[in-house]
Amino acid sequence: MTIRRVLRIGDPRLLKPALSVKEFGTQELRGLVEDMGETMAAEEGVGLAAVQIGVALRVVIFGFEGNSRYPDALPVPRTLLINPVIEPLTEEVEGDWEGCLSLPGMRGLVSRYTHIRYRGYSLEGDVLTREAVGFHARVVQHECDHLDGILYPQRVRDLKKFGYLEELVESGVMGAGGIGED
Ligand code: NI
What we know:
The chain contains three helices and eight strands; from the N terminus they run αβββββββαβα. It is α+β, with helices and mostly antiparallel strands. The mean pLDDT is 94. Nickel (II) ion binds next to α2.
């Protein structure tokens, strides 16, 4: 297992749609998922997409059980999703602060569906389907955006609600306790 370098905004590889995984259970895929897990843990992220380590495949991981950086967020089960698909189960959206390992130290206010169903495959190609609300739903939408080459600043509607975490908190634009990252 290797901790990989996380690409940062400005790298064009983050803006390209990723390709579907065609073959499951391979050593190559297993190695990728292991590296992603290692990298996410090292960065203390709550999610990571393969594109963020320069691999243009539709693979995401996310989840945590209590992360000191997000004290208010409910736990999200540790999950691997290959070729994920999201279906909104409501038209309701909610704005909250997001961060991303590809934009270290920054936050932006992003609207996301509050209730979704997602579906994807495991390493071995088994189907996983789950419903999610709140922060869990937000993380999945954020990660799946990476697979379409979308970074969260593209979803920030009001650029006054985007910037460096320290400045946003210091100026009072962002209340303490906003949730972050990826
Ligand atoms: Ni991200």
